[in-house]
Amino acid sequence: MATYNGERFLAQQLNSIISQTYKNWVLLVHDDGSEDGTVDILKEYSIKYPERIIFLNDGLKFGNAKDNFSHLIGIALERNFEYFFFCDQDDVWIENKIEIFLQRFKGIESSRKDLSILLHSDLKVVDSNLDVISDSMWRYQKLNPECKTLNYLLVQNNVTGCACAVNRALLEKAHPIGRKAIMHDWWLSLVASAFGVVDFISKPTVLYRQHEKNDTGAKNVDVRYAIRKFMRKDDLVKSIAKTVLQAQNFLSTFEQCLKPEQKDMLRAYVQIPYVSYVRKLLTVFRFKLFKQNFLRNLGFLWYLRYVKEDFYDICDNPNI
């Protein structure tokens, strides 16, 4: 769990983990310099549950969730754990979440013990009081968990970090998280799709709380949302450009391990800023680099034309 100024909902999340039907777990928590009561809550729980909750109070501050989680991954890998769950500070887990995931892990691993696996589930979207907004975040955001191959995940992530877990084989291969990765969950999904398995659990295992301080949050992807999104040219071009940066990082990290067809696809995608619009479209259709519904694809294909040689300039920080 990576925390920052989460005092409002943190105790409720911790209690939902403590109440899990599966009891053989350890929670590693790292705070990113909270200025509210978050640290006091973490100290209280780590004292009350010393064998279960480990508060890594090392004073390091990263300034973003991705690097905070990457730091936690490195520490977790030093311990003799088999499976790793990612947890946000403001959600609530259903009581048998861990048990459900472990059953699926065991089923997949029964045929291959060394397989790199990422599992993720649907989420129930709720408001700050846990009143239900949508019974399925996948339906709410028009996400299709069947889109789990590398070509889809290069351009759009459908894995929500707080509802995913990985086995040790995947985490060892994916760590450290790429410097240009957009988020840790996206990077993990790319590694799993390229070298292992991405699988999903269709039932919600998390109450995904929406409030004014959500770092990302769930959006109801309807026609009105799509139109508002379509009008925000700079944001859309920046979003596409960041997927290219991430793909560059992924290719340079794993080039020696990738299959020839995966290399061809990645090399073509990272050339997107430097080729004509017609070539961009040919790359998209040749490798089926599609997003997960018609409206998203329409915006993607239209604004792809603006990702050009100077695309680094449209990103706030090209070294993310």
TrEMBL record:
Gene3D superfamilies: Spore Coat Polysaccharide Biosynthesis Protein SpsA, Chain A (3.90.550.10). Pfam families: Glycos_transf_2 (PF00535). InterPro entries: Glyco_trans_2-like, Nucleotide-diphossugar_trans. Residues 1-107 form the Glycosyltransferase 2-like domain. It comes from the Bacteria. One of its GO terms (molecular function) is hexosyltransferase activity. This is Glycosyltransferase 2-like domain-containing protein.
